[in-house]
């Protein structure tokens, strides 16, 4: 990505990306969460730079991060589905 930055205007998302400028934004609600959870969100958004939808190719990319299931479980437990 060209940039990764924290933002305070995402209350229902972990992060977002803009493929046109290769930027990634992370919700400041993630601050204080374990690094492996933040890394998962970054991997998720990086995958969107290559695959815009949540189709099989997207999830194959995300699954390359070895802590994907653990991080997803953590976020679900925090009420972030």
Intertermini distance? 24 Å
Mean pLDDT: 94
**Number of helical segments?**
3
Overall number of strands: 3
Structural class, by secondary structure, is: alpha+beta
From the spread of the alpha carbons, the general shape counts as globular
β-strand percent reads: 15-25%
Strand order of the largest sheet: 1-3-2
Roughly how much helix do the residues carry, as a percent range?
40-55%
Secondary-structure element series: EEEHHH
Low-confidence residue ranges: none
The major β-sheet equals:
3 strands, mixed
Rg: 12 Å
Which helices and strands occur, and which strands form pairs?
Layout: E1 3-7, E2 15-18, E3 23-27, H1 35-50, H2 56-62, H3 68-77
Helix pairs in contact: 1-2, 1-3
Structure, briefly:
This protein is of the alpha+beta class and about 80 residues long. It is about 40% helix and about 15% strand. The model has no long low-confidence stretch (mean pLDDT about 95).
Can you characterise this structure?
The protein has 81 residues and is α+β, with helices and mostly antiparallel strands. 41% of the residues lie in helices and 17% in strands. It is built from three helices and three strands. Strand 2 (15-18) and strand 3 (23-27) form a beta hairpin. Helix 1 packs antiparallel against helix 2 (56-62) and helix 1 packs across helix 3 (68-77). The longest helix is centred in the middle third of the chain and has 16 residues, at 35-50. The radius of gyration is 12 Å and the shape is globular. The termini are far apart. The mean pLDDT is 94.
